[in-house]
Amino acid sequence: MVQLFIALLLFTFFGLAGLVADLGFVRLAQRQMQFPADASAMEGVRWRDTLTDEERREEARLLMLAHYDDDFFFGGPIDSLQFGAGPDVTLVGGTGSMAANQEIVVGPNLVFEPDPQLNLTNEIHGDMVAGFFNEFATIHAENATTYARNDFTTLSQPPAWRQAFLVRLRRTTGTNPLDADPGVSSRGPTVPYLFARGSLMAADLRSPGVTVRGTAIAADGGVKMAGRPRPDLTPELEGYGPIGFSFAQWTSVPFGPSTLRFSDGDFTLRPAPASPVYVGLERRAPPSLTAWQSTLTQANYGITDLDDIERRFLADLWRPAGLSMTLRVFGFGTVVIRSVEFEDNDNDSVPDDVIVVIDKRPRTVWPLNVSAVVAEDGFVGALGASSPDTAAEITLWNDSVEGVARAAYLAR
Questions:
Q1: Are strands 326-343 and 353-360 parallel, antiparallel or unpaired?
Q2: Percent of the chain with pLDDT over 90
């Protein structure tokens, strides 16, 4: 009797162990699909205002392909490291109600390597979809058949909805024609039950395998941190610039070309770049005109000809914050500095005033050297625990002020 009981327990335990092993493969495949989807969605937002729609989709696609290629030689020989989104294994044939004696067929690459489609017609069921995201939606899920979502749509929406980019990967049965729409969507095979085939799971549940999806949505948020410019790199890396604005100064400057005078209080001077600037940071004391002139002509900003600069920078925007009303950075704006002219009214070789010709740009997504995320605890720590200003208020301020620069962040 004891031996019979042990045999029954072993049968059950081996079935459960097989199921656990198969679900481990499912979880592995899902993670290997999710991470590239996250990065590709970010790429789709990052290049929104720099490249054409087709070009940014191609950049997102290439980044995803790079995740699954060990030598970045796409379309070449089989990769020795076999990076992929789970095993590429299917089961065919089988006899009887239990689908016994099925043949295991291994794909040519051993692992599933997605081939995302660009979806230039922007269908909602596509692999890459540009649209609008509502982070305040109560449900963040998609219909498994139509791929419609409550929190994402391709139709134009009010300002509360953020411009976003969705990327999805899927391993499905193929019964839904929307899963394999040429040029729009693609799919891989389901993840099969291998070790759990010896269990008593019904054949109609076991044979189709497990459907796995990886979906990511990236959106644009206000730049919360900007790095210093690196004109010494090739290509050059843009960053924050030599001028900044108070909230009142920024809103008074119109979009497009403007001539600003320092003595009129049109802008403020920034010290030489040293480290990243982030929201909540106390505004550094402005340098003298002489020191600022020296900063411009050094290699910090890559400016060699003050009469013909034509360089894009992020200007930090600041306002009083916290109970102490300390001047702190609240966001960044995009400006192109065209020229700088120093005036020496006393003829003593010391500048008395400076005139800057800029081009104030509308809301623009910066692709590099920026972040839309900053640690909330660090921000609150900078303002003080009892400050009425919170990270949520900073986000609202960045969304409501015209012309505040944007950066990509992972929304879902």
A1: antiparallel
A2: 39
